[in-house]
Specification:
Two copies of one chain form a homodimer.
Chain A lengths: L1 E4 L3 E8 L8 E3 L2 E7 L1 H11 L5 E3 L1 E3 L2 H12 L8 E3 L6 E7 L5 E6 L13 H5 L3 E4 L4 H13 L3 E6 L6 H4 L5 E5 H7 L5 H9 L5 E5 L5 E5 L4 E4 L12 H14 L4 H15 L12 H8 L2
Parallel strand pairs in A: 1-5, 1-10, 2-8, 6-7, 10-11, 11-12, 12-13
Antiparallel strand pairs in A: 2-4, 8-9, 13-14, 14-15
Helix pairs in contact in A: 1-8, 6-7, 8-9
Chain lengths: ~300, ~300
């Protein structure tokens, strides 16, 4: 079983010709409303690949929260431990996506839900799972969950999107660090990724990967394995959620006990396929679709 | 009775420090969801001033459409002729508002509702009303409604926001043109407003006003009256909907048979008060509040 603890949000995506200057008005050609959030979308990916997981997080009891929960349940993500906070507003993002090339600008509202704490965690479920996926949100609960995981031989994976206070405490409890270039930059500003990876490994993980969108990814393991994978070349329509989907693929690879190289290549394929349609989840592939893509 | 025929939308307003560059991510400090649209918000203004009107327009049978209708009904705007189109998506805008100064950038999706046509109009209701307010949307229905109004001595007012094809047909049927600087620019590009007003009067209206936000408004009447009013000085938080609220005040002045000067001054006060809070409708004043503001 896979347990994910992190953010979930409602994304309103609008596609447009060109991102407008301040104080002007522009028309959106298309609007799409769907769930988002790093851990939530990683679990949706995993479910489409055939492995339903359990999501731990929080929504408000508003229209947006109901849509978030409905979206996860429809994808067969187990939401029985999703906290619904009375009177709170759910996390929401408006994402402006340029039609040509898929550059996206995100306006994110964190909402007013309280972060989960240790007492909110289904401890037994975490202890008996194979993987725990985190995104650095709900810091107190994430720390408690990672400690439980470590004590019970559960493999931990962290999606490091942007640096957050308190993340240093979490890092030594993580087995697989898969982080954005922006997150990596925080530790060794202005240095090439080859110098950043050893720093990340220094926190004690088994493997660290830095993803950089179209520039591909760099991976290094504690065993000395090291490789760069270019991104797959596809006609990208929307890069929203590409990182989240990469993580879903990575979790899948870990479950299969694949080599690191095969896992990262599979993850990159999932992300590339996802980018071919508007929305963070629209084009998340099935296992068959990824295999087909990789065999071309 | 006042009948308004035009746009209604759902606005999601997010306040932020500074409008972000393309391809970045920014946090919204506050999010507010409320109804918008030129004619719909003008009717909300009129209702708060004490005169409930009838709204003619269209929404989809989606979450957004239900919120739009609920918002109008709560403000005592008569929605019995609001068309709810099955399977269509409602008009929606995301509005990014800078905290300092209230500059707003609008991302608008027109939705997929069909425009109203002549057969959708409650003809008797229009014929027996005192005022008909239009915003140039639903062109075929607007033209038919304006003809009915003209034939039955109903005063017509047009909110000209941006120029639309077909508006030339409508203009000769309008008694009061209250348009944005951008709309005026279409007719006489690059000329000072003093030269634009006679052009607008040339379409046959009784009075034409061009509003220019903080630069105030210019008005000219067929009788030769002409004046410039500076905008009231207030601490502006959000300029969304200021034009719509100006129109609501203008409709109110017409109903009272006030002089043009008094009507425009009252309208400008309504718009100024509105700008002091986030949202197109949040701070729309009551009659008492406008009188208090003007007597200071």
């Amino acid at each position: 079983m896979v347990v994910g603890l992190g953010q979930c949000s409602l994304d309103i995506l609008g596609s447009l010709g060109q991102y407008p200057p301040v104080d002007s008005k522009c028309d959106l050609d298309k609007v799409l409303i769907q769930g988002g959030g790093p851990v939530a979308t990683a679990l949706v990916t995993l479910a489409r690949l055939g492995v339903p997981g359990v999501f731990l997080g929080c929504v408000g009891d508003d229209d947006f929260g109901r849509r978030i929960a409905r979206g996860l349940e429809r994808e067969k993500v187990d939401c029985r431990h999703l906290l619904v906070e009375s009177g709170a507003s759910s996390q929401f993002s408006f994402v402006a996506v340029e039609q040509d090339g898929g550059r996206r600008t995100i306006f994110c509202h964190r909402g007013s839900c309280r972060p989960l704490i240790e007492d909110d965690l289904p401890a037994e479920m975490i202890c008996s799972s194979r993987l725990l996926h985190l995104d650095g949100s709900h810091p107190a609960a994430a720390l408690a969950a990672a400690r439980l995981a470590r004590a019970n031989g559960v493999i931990t994976v962290l999606d490091g999107g942007s640096w957050r206070p308190g993340i240093e405490e979490l890092l030594p409890l993580i087995d697989h660090l898969v982080v954005s270039g922006r997150f990596a930059e925080h530790w060794v500003p202005g240095r090439p990724v080859q110098e950043i990876l050893p720093v990340l490994l220094g926190f004690g993980c088994q493997a660290a990967t830095v993803t950089n969108g179209e520039a591909g990814s760099h991976t290094q393991s504690r065993d000395g394995e090291s490789f760069h994978l270019p991104a797959f070349s596809v006609k990208s329509v929307d890069t929203t959620g590409c990182g989240d989907v990469f993580h879903g693929g990575y979790l899948f690879g870990l479950l299969q006990n694949w080599s690191l190289l095969r896992t990262v290549r599979f993850s990159a394929a999932c992300a590339a396929i996802k980018s071919t349609a508007l929305g963070g989840r629209t084009a998340i592939p099935t296992l068959l679709a990824v295999e087909d893509f990789l065999s071309r």
